[in-house]
Amino acid sequence: MLDRETAEKLREMSLFGMAQTASAQEQDPEADALSFAERFGLLVDAEWTYRRNRRLARLLREARLRLQACLEDVDFGPPRGLSRSLVRSLGTGRWLEDRLNVLVVGPTGAGKTFLACALANAACRLGYSARYYRVPRLTADLTIARGDGSYRRTLSKIARFDLLVLDDLGISPLTPGECRDLLELVDDRSQFRSTVVASQLPIEAWHGAMGDPTLADAILDRLVHNAHKIVLKGESMRKIKAGLPQSGDSDTLETDT
Questions:
Q1: Which residue has the higher pLDDT, 256 or 204?
Q2: Nearest CA-CA partner of 189 in 219, 214, 217
Q3: Is the alpha carbon torsion for 209, 213, 217, 218 positive or negative?
Q4: Topology of the domain comprising 64-241
Q5: Is the pTM for the entire model greater than 0.85?
Q6: Domain spans of the chain, in order of start
Q7: Which residues, including other chains, have CB under 8 Å from residue 254's CB and lie 6 or more apart?
Q8: What is the mean pLDDT of residues 84-98?
Q9: Rounded CA gap, 152 and 166, in Å?
Q10: What gap in Å lies between CA 91 and CA 209, rounded to an integer?
Q11: CA–CA separation, 45 vs 21, rounded Å?
Q12: Which of 28, 147, 155, 185 has the greatest count of CB atoms below 10 A from its CB?
């Protein structure tokens, strides 16, 4: 019988999973047949699982993903042409270990944001920290931070996430000032952490969406040269799910490491 004092000590040491399982074992007659080592092993497993789940919940909360997407839910139907082997490879997290980037481009509704959020979700499940940002919101936040004196602190906070998702790059042209802020961010992360970029524009058009050619060269050099590239050209997934008429376009996929 787990006495009250021992239970309190477990909680004071933040061993909540162990305390809950110990209490459950007392209510389970079958637990009496287990050896001490077996019961203790179950307690340790319960604590490990409890802490792992709490960490995952915190990572997902901090990621602020736009969509609660999972790689298991990615549509690999023939019209999309999305490579299962590539997505499976990305799901292992090796690209995060290697500090590679992922660039996802395609028209509105093609599933760019879903895939980007699914990659971030997978990263969190592997224990990596992540943060989702729409580029217009990111540049606005950095502009505000410049004005209130918190720029360096804000930039450092964003830069240190293991994975940064930048959605809607090029949805509106970037000013020279916004380009400088983006360069500061990607330069801090380059070769140290991974970035996912999603855009309606083809990669070769990104340069023209940035208001300073010199800064654009520097930004793209840090994002593109060490990246997997995924090009989606299929029908809008929103249209498909709504049962609307489709044009029958197919998707293509390209990788470059």
A1: 204
A2: 219
A3: negative
A4: Rossmann fold (3.40.50)
A5: no
A6: 4-61, 64-241
A7: 229, 230, 231
A8: 96
A9: 19
A10: 31
A11: 10
A12: 185
